[in-house]
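Quarterly update from the structural biology core.
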Amino acid sequence: MAQKAAKQQAARNTSILKRTHLSSLAINAAFFLLRLIIFQASCTRATYLLYGLLSAPAFVVEFWFERIGRPTVGPNGELKKAGEDLEAKGLTEYMWDILYWTWGCTAIATIFGDKAWWGWIVVPLYSIWLAWTTFGGLREGMAGMIGAAGGGEMGNGSASNRQKKFEKRGGQRMQYR
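Predicted structure, tokenized:
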């Protein structure tokens, strides 16, 4: 069976994209229907402005997933390109987090009103925390490499207790016969 992995990837991507689009349609349609029918009194122009502004990242991510993940099929039905893996780690995983969090904020704002959009502030805070921990770990790793390459002498503060006791007794002694 030729290109079995590519066909499986294409089927998986098609299924994920279909589920994503249906979920997005359901959440956004529920927002508009409930806000127009049930919560009409609390619905203002600011409600729709906030909705448009804070739902835009989810729409951009969904469009991006459609572009990179949709399989391409030739005119005779053969698979040309399976699409990128939508379950990949790294940036794709972060984009799923943005999509899910935006959907959650939209669902909560549907029921509780405009103040629920403040929950969206978590996304930039998470980005800042993720960047800080990533670059902080990188900085510590580089400092360790510089300290190891900088010479043999490390201060007494970084020596182990065993090494301190050994140096207190006189260090390394040579025995002659």
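Residues 150-154 have pLDDT under 50 and may be disordered.
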